Amino acid sequence: MQALNKWLEDKLNYHFKDETLLKLSLTHRSACQKNNERLEFLGDAVLGSIIAEYIFNKKNESNEGDLTRYRAYLVKESTLCEIAREIELSNYLILGSGENKSGTRYRCSVLSDTLEALIGAIYLDSDFEVTKEVVVSLYQKYISDIPSMDELKDPKTKLQEIMQKEGISLPEYTLIETHGEDHQQTFHVSCRLDKKNQITHGKGKSIRQAEQEAALMMLQQYEE
């Protein structure tokens, strides 16, 4: 526990008063029935509130849609995973013996969930203001260098905005076919522009992902 506390103080500048909360936040469901899933739920909500307040104050010219995109970028799994890796969180996860051998501790989904659980534990161990200080410190390089709003817009949004600006009918997306078992399906979607008589195709693990890929292909064609 001494090494754990030293790591926390070095990386997060925080010391737990209740060390059982710290241990629980790092405990994966494979290790114990009493695990960090409830703390993850709380941490997700606390993190969302902190980031929402921060960008609300910093981006005072942004509308609701833009603020939503900024928040989504900052709390998405890949961002949380990067932060978790930067603070070497994987070294301190508590896993079941099987998961310990399978590389689970390095998975982005596990790292991002555990970081949220840790934030939830800090909130319970302290208060909102202290947790905000920890989160802002962790996010410093991300909130000081947020991509432009144009970069944050997904391909479907970009394509729709171009069509609206040029007075062209909006793209039509059609699910063409689905492959694979129920738990591991691949969706194939087409994107059609009637006025240009152009069709592109995309595939993904969800219909939304497939639509985004088809929209990206259409954007590339349109720009050419």
Q: What is the chain-wise order of helices and strands?
A: HHHHHHHHHHHEEEH
Mean pLDDT: 89
Cα distance spanning the termini: 59 Å
CATH topology of the largest domain: Ribonuclease iii, N-terminal Endonuclease Domain, Chain A
Overall, the morphology is globular
Question: What's the gyration radius in Å?
Answer: 21 Å
The CATH homologous superfamily name of the largest domain equals Ribonuclease III domain
Percent of residues in helices: 55-70%
Strand content: 5-15%
How many domains? The number is: 2
Strands in their spatial order, largest beta sheet: 1-2-3
- What structural class results from the helix and strand content? mainly alpha
- How large is the count of helical segments? 12
| Biggest sheet descriptor | 3 strands, antiparallel
Low-confidence stretches: none
Classified by CATH, the class of the largest domain is: Mainly Alpha
How does this structure look, described?
The chain has helices at about 1-10, 20-25, 35-60, 65-75, 75-85, 95-100, 110-125, 130-140, 140-145, 150, 155-165, 205-224; strands at about 170-180, 185-195, 200-205. The protein is mostly helical. The chain has two domains: about 1-145, Ribonuclease iii, N-terminal Endonuclease Domain, Chain A (Orthogonal Bundle); about 155-224, Double Stranded RNA Binding Domain (2-Layer Sandwich), CATH 3.30.160.20. The protein has a three-stranded antiparallel beta sheet with strand order 1-2-3. Strand 2 and strand 3 (about 200-205) form a beta hairpin. Helix 3 (about 35-60) crosses helix 7, helix 5 crosses helix 7 and helix 11 (about 155-165) crosses helix 12. The protein is globular and about 65 Å long. The model has no long low-confidence stretch (mean pLDDT about 90).
